[in-house]
Write the structure tokens for this entry.
Amino acid sequence: MRLADFLPYRIAVLAEQSSQCIAQVYAERFGLTRDEWRVLANLADGTWKRTAQLLEEGALEKMQVSRATQRMERNGLIERKHDAEDRRGWLMRLTPEGVGLYRKMVPIVLAREAFLLEALDEDERRTLDDVLRKLEQRARQLVRQG
Amino acid sequence: MRLADFLPYRIAVLAEQSSQCIAQVYAERFGLTRDEWRVLANLADGTWKRTAQLLEEGALEKMQVSRATQRMERNGLIERKHDAEDRRGWLMRLTPEGVGLYRKMVPIVLAREAFLLEALDEDERRTLDDVLRKLEQRARQLVRQG
DNA sequence: TATTGTTATACTCTATAACTATA
DNA sequence: TATAGTTATAGAGTATAACAATA
């Protein structure tokens, strides 16, 4: 076995690099944590969302969402109100400031994604899409069964 | 922009899952850290290696290699000796115990990799290989230029 | 009694830089 | 003076579980 050819290792190394590409934007230029960035991106459609939705859509834990959203509320990026239908939970959406921040960030991170994808031709992009989906599904299955 | 379609996010989520597949083996069953696992795998060819080689081949920092190798030496997995040609540095290789541990782990982690790859056909595997290489190169370039 | 989200705590990782020994 | 590797330390991130409010 050669570590350099081992798929989980290669994916981990690529993820480290490509995550850092994006972290240079949200963290270094805009002072967000990764979790805050994921919440921001998930709320960008302007709707009210519950914590549970942000968990799922951002691949985060409830504690991470709790802390990220509290900090974002303090920083004026989101507003929160109790869910009238279930007062244990919260509904959250971006403030105008949050929307403004998002709009500043999006073109930059999309340009970075585009730069990565420029290396690939049409076929490769399509295949990559399928492959990521399939691998993720299998990996999830493997983790579950232990 | 939809986060769920955003390439760096998708790679990060996949990496989390697929790394956990392997961590369940090296960490939960064999009590190694990720760094120790990478060092073990890199020394598996039986040769003496310097710290600098382990850095490169394992995508680690010198501090991480320093700590991992110290702990592995205490645990009897590797032996270290000063490099006669440059006594600032060390040469390291697996002990018979280290080799034995590696041999127990390899079939298990390779079976897990194989399970992931079963989801892909020949074409997809070949494309994935190229795509990972290209994306990593681009991501590295992007990180460097900031 | 179970669920949603919060808080507390301990633990691991990471990043930075100071340090030593050799070169 | 520069380099290889070590140590120290502080900060960030992670995991676990206990907890309050509500269902």
Observations:
- Chain B touches chain A through 56 residues (CB under 8 Å).
- Residues 33, 61, 63-64, 86-89 of chain B lie near DNA strand C (CB under 10 Å from a C1').
